[in-house]
Design brief:
Elements: H1 3-25, E1 28-38, E2 41-50, H2 76-93, E3 100-105, H3 116-121, E4 126-135, E5 138-149, E6 152-157, E7 160-165, E8 169-174, H4 178-189
Parallel strand pairs: 2-3
Antiparallel strand pairs: 1-2, 4-5, 4-8, 5-6, 6-7
Length: 198
Amino acid sequence: MPLIKAVMKANFADLWNLVDPYVTDANLELVELEFGREPEGFVLRLCIDVQRSDGPTDLENSAGVDGTEPRRHVGHEDCERVSRDVSAALDVSQTITHAYRLEVSSPGIERPLRREVDFQRFKGQRAKVRTHNAVDGRRNFSGMLQGANDGILLIDCDGLECRVPIADIAKAHLLPDWAEEFRKSEARSGVKHDRSAS
């Protein structure tokens, strides 16, 4: 592995281990962390969500359409708290020794997927996955998540079950079901379509 990639991986692990406890203390979950140099300088991006539970997820029941109370969304106050606490921790630890910009946000409907537990949690939903290296001759996978075990993601791509090493995944996120999102939007707004004959 080239030295620069090894250093970036080490920095990523250090940053995740430093940030995660502060997100957890806020009763939230660290979904994704990105750190790198962009044209305007170094940027540290944190994606946070409500913590997992045995009930519907924030995405799965955002409107309470299954008859239960809707789960809360990540709010501006949550992002502010995490930003404040993480900034202070980074200042003390000096994990990042140069100027950077910190951004904290919620995942949205194209929720990032990184850990094995993420792929297990969203089994049965569609996702897009890109790997660092070719796996069976391809780097891009789009299909239905079939679960994950022992560091291997199973994803059904048009009837072909692909086995993807999670450690080799560069980026992965859910693919929204727009028909379902429209249904949830209607449920939130109370919109009803009268299809009865006139």
